[in-house]
Sequence to fold (328 residues):
Amino acid sequence: MNLKGKNFLKLLDVTSQDMIDLMDLAAELKKKKKAGVLHDVCRGKNIALIFEKTSTRTRCSFEVAAHDLGMHTTYLDAIGSQIGKKESTADTARVLGRMFDGIEYRGNGQQIVEDLGKYAGVPVWNGLTNEFHPTQILADFLTIREHLGRLKGVKLVYMGDARYNMGNSLMVGCAKMGMHFVACAPKKYFPKQSLVDTCMEIAKETGAVLEFCEDVETATKNADVIYTDVWVSMGEPVEVWEERIHDLAPYQVNAAVMKNAGEQAVFMHCLPAFHDLNTTVGREMGEKFGRDCMEVTDEVFESAQSIVFDEAENRMHTIKAVMLATLT
Fold:
């Protein structure tokens, strides 16, 4: 693996072997942390964390991982930086690049993080954009490998809106790893054809299978992984809830879906999940539309097949691997 000094902006930029090496490094770092073995090999380094969109897992993962590696962090939220408002992305990048050893960005369009990576002169890491979420996929795949013992040939079914960061990144990741990816949704929620075409070319080299299916029973039969995400993403207007519920309710992950997949299947979700009414948004939308859950039922979320919290923990270990590999 030779990622020192490089950016980590989307999985299309790295090789399949890079992904494997990063997961192997994450597994090694995870063992050290569990054993209480110090690995603060980045002492003296400083990183900037730009969060134009809030997060629990991503922020905590970057901060804890950085501290474990011996680094200091500076957190910049949507009002803590002038990026894109009073200062261009390029200018912000060149300023921060002279002060920090690495920069994380979580926010809106992919072009913003691409520009940061172009001008910063230090490694830039994508913590989430509208189009891609590469650190999440590394965590997902490490978790799958831990539970199923393999990635090659694993059938992963993504249910719901596959047009944005999670559907896009899972499709790219599965193509790179020679997996069987299925987008299960109404046709208008499939990924853009241009990205599908790119992934199809990758699949020719890796043996991956990419499918797009509107029928739930057909798509989920004998699946190894059933994956879903919230139906309305951060930054989207509340008005789209009605349309999404209408279109995606048939694609909810419930007991029938898991039974159709089989006992071997695991359930995954990048979180947060609207599996009950114990959140402000979940309660408001639930009361408005007469639902007690959205994209996944509480029964599935809390079941033995659910590995969502292993997945959440692995965000930290894989993010740590990405930072270590690009900084040293």
